[in-house]
Amino acid sequence: MTGKTVCLFFALALLAFGLVSCDSTKKPETTTAAPMTTTTTAPMTTTTADTTTTTTTETTTTSTTTSMPPTTPDPNKIPKFAITEDGNVCLVVEAKMELFVPYFDTKGKLVKSFNIGQDASAKGKCAKDKETMTLSWTPSGSPKPFNLTLTFVKLPSSASNKDASVVQNIMFQYYLSEEVFPGTNATGGFAAHAKGSFFETPASVGYTCTAQQNVTLDGERPVSLGVSSIHAEAFRNSTTTDFSEKTFDCTTVPDSNNIIPIAVGVTAAILIVLAVVAFLIGNRRRAQGYQTI
After folding, report:
1. N or C: which end of the chain has fewer CB within 10 A?
2. Chain centroid, CA 210 distance in Å
3. 56: alpha, beta or left? (left if phi > 0; alpha if psi -120 to 50)
């Protein structure tokens, strides 16, 4: 065996020994797998805001004022007025009332009429034995209102009249002005008054009368009041303005203007009967005298 061969053999032996030695001393290799970290990526949300575009249109409004025609009162409607106190409607009057007011201008006497319509206001007072109603209205152009006051009173009770009532006083206050009475020779406040027994009822019932009744109101310048289609109830105990069914109509009472002629006629008839009786008695006595002779 040559020297080169020995050297080669010796080298291979050393190499083999080195490998074995290394394997025997080398610690086993431990491989630790790192935990896998999963990264979750949240989905990207893209929010798109709705953009609202508001277009403002300027609108020009033209205001149109329409004039309503004036309301004409119904001439056939009868005005109705009531007085209420503490919830009790004590007095109700429904009637067509017209006042005839005289005045003077440079030519002489003139008369102007005024109808009391539903536009008049009513105020008054309730009481046990006396009730009042004042109707107020202002004629066109007048600087002051006109007032008509009716005073109802209870009459003393009797066998035939129980709770009878009557209008005892009527007062009219008015104002003379150039605007209402053109050419008037006097201006200022005036009053006319009447006292008596008007619209009398024999019991606590309503008074009715269709025919017109004229009442003269005395004063410096007498005024005439015409009342027709009247229905009046005083000293009521009610919560409504409805009339009761019981009424007393004026046609059951003779007109005061006819009382005197009726009385004269009755008196004349009685005198005629007495004259006839006296004549018959006288003739009978004469006949008896003739028979005696």
Report:
1. C
2. 26
3. beta
Confirm if 141 and 179 have CB atoms less than 8 A apart.
Answer: yes
Task: Report pLDDT digits (tens) over 14-65.
Answer: 555 554 443 444 444 444 444 444 444 444 444 444 444 444 444 444 444 4
State the alpha helices, DSSP H only, in the chain.
3-25, 256-292
**Cα–Cα distance for residue pair 249/201, rounded to 1 Å:** 9
Burial label, 262 (beta-carbon count in 10 A; 0-12, 13-18, 19+): exposed
Which residue type occupies 47?
A: T
CA distance to 57, 123, 141, 213, per residue, from 118 (Å): 50, 13, 19, 20
**Which residue in 174, 156, 173 sits closest to 165, CA to CA?**
156
Distance, in Å, from the CA atom of 243 to the CA atom of 233, rounded to the nearest integer, reads: 7
Q: How far apart are CA 42 and CA 108, in angstroms?
A: 112
Whether this model's pTM surpasses 0.90:
no
Q: Is 250 helix (H, G, I), strand (E, B) or coil?
A: helix
CA distance 152 to 20: 151
Two structure tokens written together for 285: 């006595």
DSSP state of 140: T
